[in-house]
UniProtKB/TrEMBL annotation:
Keyword Endoplasmic reticulum listed: no
FAD-binding domain residues: 10-196, 335-402
Full protein name: Salicylate hydroxylase
Keyword rRNA processing in record: no
Keywords: FAD, Flavoprotein, Oxidoreductase
GO biological process, one term: secondary metabolite biosynthetic process
GO molecular function: FAD binding; oxidoreductase activity
Pfam family, one: FAD_binding_3
Signal peptide: none
PANTHER family, per the entry: FAD-BINDING DOMAIN-CONTAINING PROTEIN-RELATED (PTHR46720:SF3), HYDROXYLASE, PUTATIVE (AFU_ORTHOLOGUE AFUA_3G01460)-RELATED (PTHR46720)
Transmembrane domains' residue ranges: none
Species: Heliocybe sulcata
Length: 481
Protein backbone atom coordinates (compact mmCIF):
# COMPACT_ATOMS: atom_id res chain seq x y z
CA UNK A 1 0.00 0.00 0.00
CA UNK A 2 1.30 3.46 -0.88
CA UNK A 3 1.55 5.47 2.33
CA UNK A 4 3.38 8.47 0.88
CA UNK A 5 1.98 11.88 1.71
CA UNK A 6 0.79 13.86 -1.26
CA UNK A 7 2.69 17.16 -1.48
CA UNK A 8 0.66 20.38 -1.26
CA UNK A 9 -0.44 21.97 -4.51
CA UNK A 10 1.24 25.16 -3.27
CA UNK A 11 2.65 26.78 -0.14
CA UNK A 12 1.21 30.05 1.11
CA UNK A 13 2.87 32.60 3.39
CA UNK A 14 0.50 35.01 5.11
CA UNK A 15 2.33 38.04 6.50
CA UNK A 16 0.34 39.60 9.34
CA UNK A 17 -1.44 37.94 12.24
CA UNK A 18 -4.33 40.36 12.58
CA UNK A 19 -7.95 39.48 11.96
CA UNK A 20 -7.62 39.55 8.16
CA UNK A 21 -4.47 37.42 8.09
CA UNK A 22 -5.77 34.84 10.55
CA UNK A 23 -9.13 34.54 8.81
CA UNK A 24 -7.39 34.01 5.49
CA UNK A 25 -5.08 31.39 7.04
CA UNK A 26 -8.05 29.64 8.66
CA UNK A 27 -9.94 29.29 5.38
CA UNK A 28 -6.91 28.15 3.39
CA UNK A 29 -5.85 25.67 6.08
CA UNK A 30 -9.19 23.88 5.78
CA UNK A 31 -7.97 22.77 2.36
CA UNK A 32 -5.47 19.98 3.07
CA UNK A 33 -3.75 20.50 -0.29
CA UNK A 34 -2.55 23.98 0.74
CA UNK A 35 0.30 24.46 3.22
CA UNK A 36 -0.07 27.70 5.20
CA UNK A 37 2.43 29.65 7.32
CA UNK A 38 1.60 32.88 9.16
CA UNK A 39 4.42 35.34 9.93
CA UNK A 40 3.77 37.98 12.59
CA UNK A 41 6.21 40.70 13.67
CA UNK A 42 5.01 40.92 17.29
CA UNK A 43 5.94 38.55 20.12
CA UNK A 44 2.29 37.64 20.57
CA UNK A 45 -0.90 37.90 18.58
CA UNK A 46 -2.79 40.93 19.85
CA UNK A 47 -4.88 43.59 18.15
CA UNK A 48 -4.46 47.34 18.60
CA UNK A 49 -7.69 49.23 19.27
CA UNK A 50 -10.97 48.15 20.77
CA UNK A 51 -14.14 48.21 18.73
CA UNK A 52 -14.73 46.70 15.34
CA UNK A 53 -17.86 46.69 13.20
CA UNK A 54 -19.10 43.90 10.93
CA UNK A 55 -21.91 44.59 8.45
CA UNK A 56 -24.72 42.06 8.20
CA UNK A 57 -23.74 41.37 4.56
CA UNK A 58 -20.39 40.10 5.82
CA UNK A 59 -21.97 38.07 8.62
CA UNK A 60 -23.34 35.78 5.91
CA UNK A 61 -19.71 35.01 5.00
CA UNK A 62 -18.93 34.27 8.65
CA UNK A 63 -21.84 31.83 8.69
CA UNK A 64 -20.66 30.17 5.49
CA UNK A 65 -17.18 29.71 6.99
CA UNK A 66 -18.64 27.95 10.03
CA UNK A 67 -17.53 30.60 12.54
CA UNK A 68 -20.90 32.14 13.43
CA UNK A 69 -21.66 29.91 16.42
CA UNK A 70 -18.42 30.81 18.20
CA UNK A 71 -18.40 34.50 17.23
CA UNK A 72 -22.03 35.43 17.84
CA UNK A 73 -21.73 35.34 21.66
CA UNK A 74 -18.96 37.95 21.39
CA UNK A 75 -21.18 40.47 19.62
CA UNK A 76 -23.08 43.16 21.45
CA UNK A 77 -26.22 41.26 22.49
CA UNK A 78 -28.60 44.15 21.90
CA UNK A 79 -30.19 44.43 18.46
CA UNK A 80 -27.46 46.02 16.35
CA UNK A 81 -29.35 49.03 15.11
CA UNK A 82 -28.07 51.33 12.41
CA UNK A 83 -26.16 54.46 13.45
CA UNK A 84 -28.34 57.22 14.87
CA UNK A 85 -27.18 60.69 13.77
CA UNK A 86 -27.41 63.86 15.84
CA UNK A 87 -26.27 67.43 15.34
CA UNK A 88 -24.38 67.76 18.59
CA UNK A 89 -22.07 70.79 18.39
CA UNK A 90 -24.31 72.96 20.55
CA UNK A 91 -25.69 72.74 24.06
CA UNK A 92 -28.96 71.35 22.71
CA UNK A 93 -28.47 68.42 20.33
CA UNK A 94 -30.86 67.45 17.56
CA UNK A 95 -31.55 63.98 16.16
CA UNK A 96 -32.01 63.95 12.40
CA UNK A 97 -31.37 60.54 10.79
CA UNK A 98 -30.95 56.78 11.17
CA UNK A 99 -28.33 55.69 8.66
CA UNK A 100 -29.63 53.18 6.08
CA UNK A 101 -32.78 52.60 8.13
CA UNK A 102 -34.96 51.27 5.28
CA UNK A 103 -37.60 50.48 7.92
CA UNK A 104 -35.11 48.28 9.75
CA UNK A 105 -35.40 49.73 13.23
CA UNK A 106 -39.07 48.87 13.71
CA UNK A 107 -38.33 45.27 12.72
CA UNK A 108 -35.34 45.03 15.02
CA UNK A 109 -37.36 46.12 18.00
CA UNK A 110 -39.80 43.25 17.43
CA UNK A 111 -37.67 40.31 16.32
CA UNK A 112 -34.66 39.12 18.28
CA UNK A 113 -31.46 38.94 16.17
CA UNK A 114 -33.43 40.09 13.10
CA UNK A 115 -30.53 42.36 12.15
CA UNK A 116 -28.47 39.37 10.98
CA UNK A 117 -30.53 39.11 7.79
CA UNK A 118 -31.20 42.80 7.18
CA UNK A 119 -29.08 45.16 5.06
CA UNK A 120 -27.27 48.17 6.47
CA UNK A 121 -27.12 46.94 10.06
CA UNK A 122 -23.84 46.58 11.88
CA UNK A 123 -22.73 44.34 14.73
CA UNK A 124 -19.91 45.36 17.04
CA UNK A 125 -17.15 43.32 18.64
CA UNK A 126 -14.12 43.85 20.80
CA UNK A 127 -11.29 43.54 18.28
CA UNK A 128 -9.02 41.40 20.47
CA UNK A 129 -11.87 39.02 21.38
CA UNK A 130 -12.66 38.49 17.70
CA UNK A 131 -9.01 37.84 16.87
CA UNK A 132 -8.56 35.31 19.67
CA UNK A 133 -11.72 33.45 18.65
CA UNK A 134 -10.43 33.04 15.08
CA UNK A 135 -7.00 32.01 16.39
CA UNK A 136 -8.56 29.15 18.35
CA UNK A 137 -10.03 27.77 15.14
CA UNK A 138 -6.71 27.56 13.31
CA UNK A 139 -5.82 23.90 12.69
CA UNK A 140 -2.47 22.58 13.92
CA UNK A 141 -1.37 22.23 10.31
CA UNK A 142 -1.24 26.04 10.06
CA UNK A 143 2.08 27.19 11.50
CA UNK A 144 2.24 30.60 13.19
CA UNK A 145 5.71 32.18 13.44
CA UNK A 146 6.12 35.10 15.87
CA UNK A 147 8.85 37.77 16.00
CA UNK A 148 9.14 37.66 12.22
CA UNK A 149 9.30 41.25 10.97
CA UNK A 150 9.43 41.25 7.18
CA UNK A 151 12.11 43.51 5.69
CA UNK A 152 12.02 42.63 1.99
CA UNK A 153 10.59 40.27 -0.62
CA UNK A 154 12.18 38.75 -3.72
CA UNK A 155 9.72 37.64 -6.40
CA UNK A 156 11.60 35.98 -9.29
CA UNK A 157 10.27 36.37 -12.81
CA UNK A 158 10.42 32.60 -13.24
CA UNK A 159 7.42 30.72 -11.89
CA UNK A 160 9.77 27.79 -11.23
CA UNK A 161 11.54 29.68 -8.43
CA UNK A 162 9.91 30.43 -5.05
CA UNK A 163 9.14 33.83 -3.58
CA UNK A 164 11.71 34.64 -0.86
CA UNK A 165 10.88 36.45 2.37
CA UNK A 166 13.61 38.16 4.41
CA UNK A 167 13.09 38.96 8.10
CA UNK A 168 14.74 41.37 10.51
CA UNK A 169 16.26 38.53 12.55
CA UNK A 170 18.29 37.42 9.53
CA UNK A 171 16.17 34.39 8.68
CA UNK A 172 14.45 33.70 5.38
CA UNK A 173 11.46 31.71 4.17
CA UNK A 174 10.07 30.74 0.80
CA UNK A 175 6.59 30.23 -0.61
CA UNK A 176 4.68 29.82 -3.83
CA UNK A 177 2.22 32.56 -2.92
CA UNK A 178 2.67 35.53 -0.59
CA UNK A 179 -0.40 37.18 0.94
CA UNK A 180 0.22 40.59 2.47
CA UNK A 181 -2.17 41.14 5.36
CA UNK A 182 0.32 43.29 7.24
CA UNK A 183 -1.71 46.43 7.64
CA UNK A 184 -1.45 50.04 6.57
CA UNK A 185 2.37 50.10 6.78
CA UNK A 186 2.56 46.88 4.76
CA UNK A 187 6.10 45.83 3.90
CA UNK A 188 4.61 43.46 1.32
CA UNK A 189 2.97 46.40 -0.46
CA UNK A 190 6.13 48.48 -0.28
CA UNK A 191 8.28 45.62 -1.62
CA UNK A 192 5.83 45.01 -4.46
CA UNK A 193 5.80 48.64 -5.59
CA UNK A 194 9.53 49.18 -4.99
CA UNK A 195 10.12 46.27 -7.36
CA UNK A 196 7.90 47.89 -10.01
CA UNK A 197 9.71 51.20 -9.60
CA UNK A 198 13.12 49.53 -9.89
CA UNK A 199 12.06 47.73 -13.06
CA UNK A 200 10.80 51.00 -14.57
CA UNK A 201 14.07 52.75 -13.73
CA UNK A 202 16.06 49.93 -15.30
CA UNK A 203 14.12 50.66 -18.49
CA UNK A 204 14.82 54.39 -18.24
CA UNK A 205 11.23 55.23 -17.27
CA UNK A 206 11.88 57.61 -14.37
CA UNK A 207 8.43 59.21 -14.41
CA UNK A 208 6.76 55.80 -14.25
CA UNK A 209 9.07 54.81 -11.39
CA UNK A 210 8.11 57.96 -9.47
CA UNK A 211 4.43 57.09 -9.90
CA UNK A 212 4.96 53.57 -8.49
CA UNK A 213 6.80 55.02 -5.49
CA UNK A 214 3.74 57.08 -4.53
CA UNK A 215 1.96 53.92 -3.44
CA UNK A 216 4.53 52.78 -0.90
CA UNK A 217 3.54 54.72 2.20
CA UNK A 218 0.24 55.84 3.71
CA UNK A 219 -0.75 59.51 3.66
CA UNK A 220 -2.24 61.69 6.40
CA UNK A 221 -5.87 62.70 5.98
CA UNK A 222 -5.59 65.88 8.07
CA UNK A 223 -7.67 64.18 10.79
CA UNK A 224 -6.77 62.91 14.22
CA UNK A 225 -8.92 60.52 16.22
CA UNK A 226 -9.08 60.39 19.99
CA UNK A 227 -9.90 56.88 21.17
CA UNK A 228 -11.01 55.54 24.51
CA UNK A 229 -13.56 53.45 26.35
CA UNK A 230 -16.04 53.95 29.17
CA UNK A 231 -18.13 51.43 31.05
CA UNK A 232 -21.90 51.25 31.10
CA UNK A 233 -21.79 51.63 34.89
CA UNK A 234 -19.92 54.94 34.60
CA UNK A 235 -22.48 56.34 32.20
CA UNK A 236 -25.42 55.06 34.23
CA UNK A 237 -24.04 56.85 37.29
CA UNK A 238 -24.66 60.13 35.45
CA UNK A 239 -27.98 59.03 34.04
CA UNK A 240 -29.83 58.29 37.29
CA UNK A 241 -29.30 54.56 36.87
CA UNK A 242 -30.93 54.31 33.44
CA UNK A 243 -29.09 52.92 30.44
CA UNK A 244 -27.95 55.60 27.96
CA UNK A 245 -28.83 55.13 24.29
CA UNK A 246 -25.17 54.71 23.32
CA UNK A 247 -25.00 51.52 25.42
CA UNK A 248 -27.64 49.98 23.18
CA UNK A 249 -26.95 51.30 19.70
CA UNK A 250 -24.24 53.05 17.65
CA UNK A 251 -24.40 56.85 17.83
CA UNK A 252 -22.95 59.49 15.52
CA UNK A 253 -22.61 62.94 17.10
CA UNK A 254 -21.92 65.38 14.24
CA UNK A 255 -20.41 68.85 14.36
CA UNK A 256 -18.49 71.37 12.30
CA UNK A 257 -15.03 69.84 11.55
CA UNK A 258 -15.51 67.55 14.57
CA UNK A 259 -17.59 64.49 15.27
CA UNK A 260 -17.81 61.78 17.91
CA UNK A 261 -18.70 58.12 17.40
CA UNK A 262 -19.86 55.88 20.25
CA UNK A 263 -20.97 52.26 20.11
CA UNK A 264 -21.37 49.31 22.50
CA UNK A 265 -18.94 46.39 22.61
CA UNK A 266 -18.37 43.47 25.00
CA UNK A 267 -22.07 42.65 25.21
CA UNK A 268 -22.97 46.27 25.84
CA UNK A 269 -20.88 46.59 29.00
CA UNK A 270 -18.35 48.93 27.39
CA UNK A 271 -18.79 51.86 25.02
CA UNK A 272 -16.03 52.42 22.50
CA UNK A 273 -15.46 56.09 21.67
CA UNK A 274 -13.72 57.56 18.65
CA UNK A 275 -13.73 61.35 18.39
CA UNK A 276 -12.40 63.14 15.31
CA UNK A 277 -11.03 66.61 14.62
CA UNK A 278 -10.03 67.64 11.10
CA UNK A 279 -8.04 70.34 9.34
CA UNK A 280 -8.80 69.86 5.65
CA UNK A 281 -5.88 72.09 4.63
CA UNK A 282 -3.51 69.46 6.03
CA UNK A 283 -4.79 66.54 3.94
CA UNK A 284 -1.72 64.94 2.36
CA UNK A 285 0.73 66.93 4.50
CA UNK A 286 3.45 65.21 6.56
CA UNK A 287 2.48 64.36 10.14
CA UNK A 288 5.49 65.25 12.26
CA UNK A 289 4.30 64.01 15.67
CA UNK A 290 4.10 60.36 16.79
CA UNK A 291 1.32 58.58 14.89
CA UNK A 292 -0.13 57.29 18.17
CA UNK A 293 0.28 58.98 21.54
CA UNK A 294 -1.38 59.04 24.94
CA UNK A 295 -2.90 62.42 25.82
CA UNK A 296 -4.57 63.87 28.88
CA UNK A 297 -8.30 63.75 29.37
CA UNK A 298 -8.20 67.54 29.57
CA UNK A 299 -6.80 67.82 26.03
CA UNK A 300 -9.35 65.31 24.81
CA UNK A 301 -12.35 67.07 26.33
CA UNK A 302 -11.15 70.53 25.26
CA UNK A 303 -11.34 69.58 21.59
CA UNK A 304 -15.10 69.11 21.90
CA UNK A 305 -16.12 72.09 23.98
CA UNK A 306 -19.58 73.29 23.07
CA UNK A 307 -20.94 69.83 22.29
CA UNK A 308 -24.16 68.72 23.96
CA UNK A 309 -24.12 67.26 27.48
CA UNK A 310 -24.64 63.69 26.23
CA UNK A 311 -21.26 63.89 24.49
CA UNK A 312 -19.55 65.61 27.41
CA UNK A 313 -20.68 62.76 29.67
CA UNK A 314 -19.14 60.23 27.29
CA UNK A 315 -15.79 61.97 27.16
CA UNK A 316 -15.29 62.83 30.81
CA UNK A 317 -14.72 59.23 31.94
CA UNK A 318 -12.13 58.29 29.32
CA UNK A 319 -8.88 57.48 31.12
CA UNK A 320 -5.65 58.02 29.15
CA UNK A 321 -7.19 58.58 25.74
CA UNK A 322 -4.97 57.91 22.75
CA UNK A 323 -4.57 60.24 19.80
CA UNK A 324 -4.22 58.63 16.37
CA UNK A 325 -3.22 60.41 13.18
CA UNK A 326 -5.61 59.00 10.57
CA UNK A 327 -3.70 57.80 7.53
CA UNK A 328 -4.94 56.00 4.45
CA UNK A 329 -3.45 54.16 1.50
CA UNK A 330 -3.53 55.99 -1.83
CA UNK A 331 -5.96 53.99 -4.03
CA UNK A 332 -3.78 51.32 -5.62
CA UNK A 333 -3.76 50.50 -9.35
CA UNK A 334 -3.31 46.81 -8.47
CA UNK A 335 -3.61 44.57 -5.42
CA UNK A 336 -1.51 41.80 -6.97
CA UNK A 337 1.55 40.69 -8.88
CA UNK A 338 2.07 37.21 -10.33
CA UNK A 339 2.49 35.58 -6.91
CA UNK A 340 1.72 38.30 -4.37
CA UNK A 341 -1.72 39.43 -3.20
CA UNK A 342 -2.60 42.24 -0.81
CA UNK A 343 -5.71 42.21 1.35
CA UNK A 344 -7.29 44.32 4.06
CA UNK A 345 -5.50 47.49 5.16
CA UNK A 346 -2.39 46.50 3.21
CA UNK A 347 -4.45 46.94 0.04
CA UNK A 348 -6.93 49.68 0.90
CA UNK A 349 -6.50 51.16 4.39
CA UNK A 350 -9.31 53.67 4.63
CA UNK A 351 -10.59 56.29 7.02
CA UNK A 352 -12.90 54.68 9.59
CA UNK A 353 -15.92 56.82 8.75
CA UNK A 354 -18.02 53.97 7.33
CA UNK A 355 -16.77 51.38 9.80
CA UNK A 356 -16.07 49.34 6.68
CA UNK A 357 -12.39 48.41 6.98
CA UNK A 358 -12.92 45.08 8.72
CA UNK A 359 -15.84 44.10 6.51
CA UNK A 360 -13.85 44.89 3.37
CA UNK A 361 -10.98 42.73 4.65
CA UNK A 362 -13.38 39.82 5.17
CA UNK A 363 -14.73 40.28 1.64
CA UNK A 364 -11.16 40.29 0.29
CA UNK A 365 -10.52 37.03 2.12
CA UNK A 366 -13.75 35.48 0.87
CA UNK A 367 -13.04 36.15 -2.80
CA UNK A 368 -9.32 35.35 -2.65
CA UNK A 369 -9.68 32.09 -0.73
CA UNK A 370 -12.61 30.98 -2.91
CA UNK A 371 -10.28 31.22 -5.89
CA UNK A 372 -7.23 29.69 -4.21
CA UNK A 373 -9.12 26.66 -2.90
CA UNK A 374 -10.80 25.96 -6.24
CA UNK A 375 -9.62 22.67 -7.82
CA UNK A 376 -8.53 24.55 -10.95
CA UNK A 377 -6.16 26.77 -8.97
CA UNK A 378 -2.63 25.33 -9.11
CA UNK A 379 0.87 26.80 -9.14
CA UNK A 380 0.50 27.21 -12.89
CA UNK A 381 -2.86 28.98 -12.70
CA UNK A 382 -2.09 31.18 -9.67
CA UNK A 383 -1.59 34.26 -11.88
CA UNK A 384 -5.10 33.70 -13.28
CA UNK A 385 -6.59 33.58 -9.79
CA UNK A 386 -4.76 36.66 -8.53
CA UNK A 387 -5.66 38.73 -11.57
CA UNK A 388 -9.32 37.78 -11.13
CA UNK A 389 -9.18 38.66 -7.42
CA UNK A 390 -7.83 42.08 -8.37
CA UNK A 391 -10.48 42.61 -11.06
CA UNK A 392 -13.30 41.72 -8.67
CA UNK A 393 -12.19 43.31 -5.41
CA UNK A 394 -10.13 46.40 -6.25
CA UNK A 395 -12.84 48.57 -7.86
CA UNK A 396 -15.28 48.13 -4.98
CA UNK A 397 -12.67 48.38 -2.21
CA UNK A 398 -11.24 51.58 -3.69
CA UNK A 399 -14.75 53.00 -4.07
CA UNK A 400 -15.46 52.26 -0.40
CA UNK A 401 -12.13 53.90 0.48
CA UNK A 402 -13.17 57.09 -1.32
CA UNK A 403 -16.67 56.86 0.16
CA UNK A 404 -15.19 56.72 3.65
CA UNK A 405 -13.30 59.94 2.94
CA UNK A 406 -16.52 61.64 1.82
CA UNK A 407 -18.38 60.29 4.86
CA UNK A 408 -15.84 61.96 7.14
CA UNK A 409 -16.45 65.29 5.42
CA UNK A 410 -20.19 64.72 5.75
CA UNK A 411 -20.09 64.01 9.51
CA UNK A 412 -17.99 67.18 9.88
CA UNK A 413 -20.60 69.19 7.94
CA UNK A 414 -17.95 69.91 5.33
CA UNK A 415 -19.38 68.84 1.96
CA UNK A 416 -20.49 71.54 -0.53
CA UNK A 417 -24.07 72.57 0.17
CA UNK A 418 -24.08 70.68 3.48
CA UNK A 419 -21.72 72.82 5.54
CA UNK A 420 -22.46 74.47 8.87
CA UNK A 421 -23.38 77.72 7.10
CA UNK A 422 -25.91 75.83 4.98
CA UNK A 423 -27.41 74.05 7.99
CA UNK A 424 -27.78 77.06 10.29
CA UNK A 425 -30.47 79.34 8.85
CA UNK A 426 -32.23 82.43 10.18
CA UNK A 427 -35.83 82.06 11.22
CA UNK A 428 -38.53 84.70 10.97
CA UNK A 429 -37.34 86.17 14.26
CA UNK A 430 -33.76 86.42 13.01
CA UNK A 431 -32.52 83.57 15.23
CA UNK A 432 -30.16 80.98 13.72
CA UNK A 433 -31.60 77.47 13.86
CA UNK A 434 -30.65 74.15 12.25
CA UNK A 435 -32.57 73.45 9.06
CA UNK A 436 -34.14 70.00 9.24
CA UNK A 437 -34.41 70.02 5.45
CA UNK A 438 -30.63 70.40 5.07
CA UNK A 439 -29.96 67.88 7.84
CA UNK A 440 -32.20 65.39 6.05
CA UNK A 441 -30.04 65.94 2.97
CA UNK A 442 -26.99 65.10 5.10
CA UNK A 443 -28.61 61.81 6.10
CA UNK A 444 -29.74 61.00 2.57
CA UNK A 445 -26.24 61.69 1.24
CA UNK A 446 -24.80 59.24 3.76
CA UNK A 447 -27.29 56.59 2.65
CA UNK A 448 -26.20 57.16 -0.95
CA UNK A 449 -22.53 56.78 0.01
CA UNK A 450 -23.35 53.45 1.61
CA UNK A 451 -25.53 52.02 -1.15
CA UNK A 452 -22.83 49.42 -1.84
CA UNK A 453 -23.80 47.69 1.41
CA UNK A 454 -27.12 46.36 0.10
CA UNK A 455 -26.96 46.90 -3.67
CA UNK A 456 -24.04 44.56 -4.40
CA UNK A 457 -23.87 41.10 -2.83
CA UNK A 458 -20.41 39.66 -2.27
CA UNK A 459 -21.77 36.18 -3.00
CA UNK A 460 -22.51 37.35 -6.56
CA UNK A 461 -18.94 38.61 -6.81
CA UNK A 462 -17.73 35.16 -5.77
CA UNK A 463 -19.84 33.48 -8.45
CA UNK A 464 -18.43 35.87 -11.03
CA UNK A 465 -14.86 35.20 -9.88
CA UNK A 466 -15.26 31.43 -10.09
CA UNK A 467 -16.81 31.69 -13.55
CA UNK A 468 -13.90 33.84 -14.72
CA UNK A 469 -11.38 31.33 -13.35
CA UNK A 470 -13.08 28.43 -15.11
CA UNK A 471 -13.21 30.33 -18.40
CA UNK A 472 -9.56 31.40 -18.15
CA UNK A 473 -8.42 27.86 -17.43
CA UNK A 474 -10.48 26.43 -20.29
CA UNK A 475 -8.88 28.91 -22.70
CA UNK A 476 -5.41 28.32 -21.28
CA UNK A 477 -4.84 32.05 -21.50
CA UNK A 478 -3.77 34.61 -18.91
CA UNK A 479 -6.18 37.09 -20.47
CA UNK A 480 -9.00 37.94 -18.06
CA UNK A 481 -12.03 39.37 -19.85
Amino acid sequence: MNTSVRPPKFEVAVVGGGIAGLLCAFVLSKNTSIEVHVYEAAHQLSEVGAGIGIFSRVWKIIEELGLAESLLPLANNEAALTFHMRKSDSTEGLSFHDMNDLGINSVLRCVERAWINLPGTIMTFHRAELQQAILKWLPSSCKVHLLKRLTSVDEPDSMDLPVSLHFADGTTATCDLLIGADGIKSEVRMSMYRSRAAKARSQGKEEVADIWMRYLRPVWTGSVAYRGMVTKEQLMSLNRGSEPAVCKRPMMYCGSLRHVVGYPISNGNIVDIVAFTTDTDLEGAPFDAPLVSVVSNEEFVSKFQGFEQEVQDLLRFVDKPTRWAIHTVTPLPSFVSKRIALLGDAAHAMAPHQGAGASQAVEDTYILTSLLTHPLCTQETLPFALEIYDRIRRPLANAVLEGSRRAGFLFDFNLPGLREDDIMQKGADGTLRPSMEVLRQVGQTMDTIQEWIWKRAVQKDRECAITMLEECCSRGSLRVD
